[in-house]
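Hello,

Our lab assistant flagged a job as stuck in the queue for most of the afternoon. It eventually completed. Since we weren't sure the result was trustworthy after the delay, we are filing this so someone can double-check. Below is the sequence as submitted and the structure that was eventually returned. Let us know if re-running is recommended.
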Amino acid sequence: MSWQDRLGAVGVWRGVTDTDPALAAEVERLGYGTVWLGGSPPADLVAAERLLEVTDALVVATGITNIWMTDPAELAAAYHRVQARFPDRLLLGIGSGHREATPQRVRPLQAMGHYLDVLDEHGVPVGARVLSALGPKMLAVSAERAVGTHPYLTVPSQTGQMRADLGDGPLVAPEQTVVLETDEDAARAAARDFLSRYLQLENYTATMHRGGFTGADTALPGSDRLVDSIVVHGSAAAVAAGVRAHLDAGADHVCVQVVPAGSDVAGALGALAGALGLTPRG
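-- returned structure --
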């Protein structure tokens, strides 16, 4: 079975420290296919293993394991441990982070190549990993040395371009941030609060510029046009339409990130699952 089938059409992105087994079980019950653990989960993969232990078919993916913060040999050993217990339910999302938070981040393409070399040497299959590829060069690596790409904070037009660049085979699995809030001012305030950090990181603003936004759009606190495009907000039906826009543009899978992170995430995911027509389990 391909990852396109295993992941399901829609999954959930959630910070690793904010995701517990109870939430994972609820995500599976609601009909989502995958939980993506964000926030640079550690190489021991214990967090992923805990979620797999309480679910039956849910896939757990790292979104992403940061190559500057994790040892590839340790990650490989953990992968084999988890894979032996839960075959084909773990996908390694791997990325190079961003320069402002990682001073040692130089020559990310070369560093990614070295990291993947170590995973190769330790027997981690190319088919078990996906790269967080935002630029065209890393996107090419994602097709050659992984199953595809897991981009973050992109819009459907970029999903379409990635599909065109990669062709029909590789996985395209974008993240989509959402705010389930029908009050436009409140929704935009939540979206701007979320985006404020990312608008200070060059790799994300560069990606936004490639997506058609201008420097005026990405200047803090972010234009309405950018905020409304990057963070889909509104009713469950409106948010579901934003998720489907990525699928219509060529995505194999979309993972939704509900913000604010401290809101009723399970309730929001339940409402969105209904609007998406997901089939509940059990």
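-- support follow-up --
The delay was a queue issue, not a problem with the job. The result is valid. The chain has a mean pLDDT of 95. The chain has one domain: 3-276.
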